[in-house]
Amino acid sequence: MTTVGSNNAHAFARSDRSPLGVWWWTVDRWMLGVVAILIAIGVVVSFAASPAAAARMNIGDPFHFAVRQCVFAVASMILMMAVSMLDVKGVRRAAFVIWLAAIAVMIALPFIGHSAKGATRWIEFGGFTFQPSEYMKPALVILVAWMFAEGQKGNGVPGVSIAFGLFAVSVGLLLIQPDVGQTVLITVAFGAAFWMAGVPMSWVMLLGATALAGLSSTYFMFPHVQSRVDRFFSPEKADTHQVDAAAIAQAAGGLFGRGPGEGVMKRRVPDLHTDFAASVGAEEFGLVFLLLVISLFAFVVVRGLMRAMKLSDPFEQIAAAALFVLVGQQAIINLAVNLNMMPTKGMTLPFISYGGSSMLAMGLTMGLALALTRRRPGAYAQSEGLAKAGTFG
Questions:
Q1: Least confident of 222-231, 256-265, 278-287
Q2: Which of 48-52, 164-168, 240-244 has the highest mean pLDDT?
Q3: Residue 265: CB partners within 8 Å, gap ≥ 6?
Q4: 3-state secondary structure 297-355
């Protein structure tokens, strides 16, 4: 007699050649599980932060943000799994379409965009806000990796020139908004892809020096950047309320936290459910919460880079590694701001901070990374692939 349990156990047998069965046995299930844990942590933190955030914004439903976060979480997980089923050609096609669509919307932002805090980065519709630059980032990474790989083949394709052109268009539109934080993210990811493409070190150093000069110039070009940097280096001369409240919240949490729902400092942090979600979690669940979050992100980035290094195709290597760099650096920047180790950036913590655009874009990013690192015939022919690519030493 066949039981229900035995049927479920064999639902994804190794001999199952259905698209879902093939996906299950080729995708990195450990990575998938850790991202699911991060998303679940984000939902828990949103329930802790939502009542205070709703009260601050005079929203009647105390769990307004928590309920929406649950919807975003489910949508992000579905998007990540669906995108991770793409083959390599599908990844490139999707990136091209997404980049074009995002750039088109970014061009229209000055005319139809929603302005907040001195920037025009969003489009509002039906009670939701859409930030196109969030989706442009992973698509750009895929496209520049593709161009760098094509340039390596020596078939006359000006891959490096095209990659720099795509990067310049993206950065130009970001600075018009202005959005210096996202500019920093894609610049670092672009630099990582540039370095991993095996270009001469002198080129990498030149790009780094140019990026550093450009970043420094934003201090003089944008008043809000100057204000944030001044507050960071001269806190006694400026209003550092958010950072101070976040620090007090973390200290009050101690090792194991005040307990779920017992945090009080979240009522004093304006962006508690977005930029400072980590501080809310630290107060209610303690230092162990921060250490757990850092460990999970470290697992994603380190494991992702290790798998990317073993890929045989130069495009897949560069693209996958740069995507994991993109996720890792955003997490590092957000946590560093929460710990008052760098000026505030207005950047979310991937999968944990509240925000539909951020959550869905991170689902897209990880879906693309998982698609590229899936086990396919010849994908991990390490001895031949790394020697041919000449990228990782």
A1: 222-231
A2: 164-168
A3: 245, 246, 248, 249, 252, 279, 283
A4: HHHHHHHHHHHHHCCCCHHHHHHHHHHHHHHHHHHHHHHHHHCCCCCCCCCCCCCCCCC
- Read off the pLDDT of residues 3-43 as tens digits, 9 standing for 90 and up: 444 444 445 667 667 778 888 889 999 999 999 999 999 99
Locate the domains of the chain by residue range: 21-90+196-374
Q: Answer whether 197's CB lies under 8 Å from 149's CB.
A: yes
Q: How many CB atoms lie within 10 A of CB 57?
A: 11
CA distances from 23 to 15, 75, 269, 370, 383 (A): 12, 19, 42, 10, 25
Distance CA 353, CA 376 (A): 34
Which residues make beta-bridge pairs with 116?
Answer: 119
